[in-house]
Batch of 2 targets.
Target 1
Amino acid sequence: MKVLVTGGAGYIGSHTCVELLEAGHSVVAVDNLCNSGKKSLDRVREITGKELDFYEGDLRDEGLLERIFRQHKIDCVIHFAALKAVGESVKKPLEYYGNNIGATLSLCRAMDKAGVRKLVFSSSATVYSADNRMPLSENAKTGDCTNPYGWSKYICERIVSDFAASDNSRRVAVLRYFNPVGAHPSGKLGEDPKGVPNNLMPYITQTVLGRRECLNIFGDDYPTPDGTGVRDYIHIVDLARGHLSALEYIDGRPGVSVFNLGTGKGVSVREMVAAFEKVNGVTVPCRIAPRRAGDLAVCYADAEKSAKELGWSAFRTIEDMCRDSWNWQKNNPNGFEE
Ligand code: NAD
Ligand code: WQD
């Protein structure tokens, strides 16, 4: 298949490009590089020994998308391109709505014009309401999001679902990711956040590296076994492969299909830190800090539907995630920058 990967230079996009190329697909990537750089795509080429086409530009530029669809016979699109920082979205709601919804609308319009029928959309566990019981199955309640980023994903899910429903030859998969972490086992590709990391794993790796003084554990008084927050961390390579399963799955299924991409297991902050220290033989300096506004105590997936229907499960362990994250970070202390 020839796959258009939007946001292809980003963390999840670049790892998915590797898996697509290694499975024998052709890849066309598009990215405006607002949160990434071209180096990640050079690393994709280095790891796979294969070429991919790259267009630098914004998805809201419909002329660019029309040109891409004219120049390539695209079979399906995987749509990663979005802004994703929860805190920033509260400060810049219009930027988040404008970018995430604008990009999705212009992509759907260009797909419509070009007659491209298959779409895999990157959604997030953040679309689930906070009052659900764990684990979260795909039919748990959604909405009541606590920030504009979450709402933008919720609205885009609606857009791509209505897009699918308006023509029965369209096939759309909505994938709700839990907490992607880890890196490619080669150590050549990984997460390279700009500025101070918001997420746990890059904060841990930068702390061990000495770029951060110590990890702030946001709360140790949650109603969890050790008092720290519990999440469903999923290895980036498992996550990337979930997209290949989704492409196969939607091939014969009109309409929209929704899947969680998680492991179904919850891991606490303290457990993650302990695993990181043990597997890498390092110390992670930590201190207990106040709870972070908007955080849930516990969040993990019901992974049964993905296993049964999609035929996909995550099997990489927390130790794999910690080892691969550190391997990437220590080999690339400044990320993709030399
Ligand atoms: P990322 O920032 O590394 O990648 C997103 C890429 O999209 C970046 O390279 C950025 O430059 C590009 N981009 C953004 N807006 C664009 C636009 N208008 N036009 C062209 N390119 C644009 O983020 P990621 O972690 O790889 O996330 C990929 C997708 O997965 C996003 O849609 C995100 O919301 C979703 N997601 C991520 C997580 C996570 O924790 N990383 C969890 C759930 C869902
Ligand atoms: C994990 C746990 C923190 C940092 C976010 C988004 C979500 C999705 C994934 C995109 C929590 C604790 C963290 C730190 C800490 N993204 N923590 N110290 O909040 O589950 O999800 O990323 O869709 O929408 O909200 O992930 O990695 O930020 O936090 O103690 O410095 O680690 O409190 O318990 P989160 P996270």
Target 2
Amino acid sequence: MNQAQQKQDAAEAAADYVATHLEPGAILGVGTGSTVNFFIDALAPLKEQLGGAVASSEATRQRLAALDIPIVDLNDVGRLAIYVDGADEIDPGFAMIKGGGGALTREKIIAAASDVFVCIADAGKRVDQLGRFPLPVEVIPMARRLVAGQLAALGGEPVLREGFVTDNGHCILDVAGLVIHKPRALEIIINQITGVVCSGLFALRGADVLLLGTEDGVITCLPFGALP
Ligand code: 5RP
């Protein structure tokens, strides 16, 4: 089964999860990316059940709006029961690298405001240790060089994502070569670099449930292999 089919299967499983677990009329958090695009498509039959959605990017906002799902400002909701999003890598404890699509800051905000983070991914995203995928770091443009120097001092090789501006008006450094033994500790260190808006390490607030599309269908996983 190819990667796109695995993404679609995981996305459809997430729509089932939402149908079962989200109170009628509640607001759903929706992430960004190709897997989430499948998820948004799968939400169509559920849209009467949803009170609306908080979108993690302009791209997601437009796709939800095309389905006539009301877009809600996070500030008008406070907390969300469920947030569904993809990942670039996810480890056994459900720490993740995110931000391949550049929406990491809004994604991290919605994750922080959500009770349950449901990660949807194809089998290739599941790794034993994070770091093969270059870590995206959103940076205030005037601090790009300053931050790149600090990330290099941590052992990374930061590369500016050329021609890309985030929805928040910032740039992204993609940092290859980081050895991520302790994702929570590294997230704290990178958060403290002046000029960093947000890193794509989602370890302090990782996922709670992983719906993993595999060759053999979708597997529901909990952190560290706990049984669902
Ligand atoms: C966007 C993200 C995405 O969740 C991540 O890049 C995975 O994308 P895809 O579902 O296209 O593989 O973090 O900022």
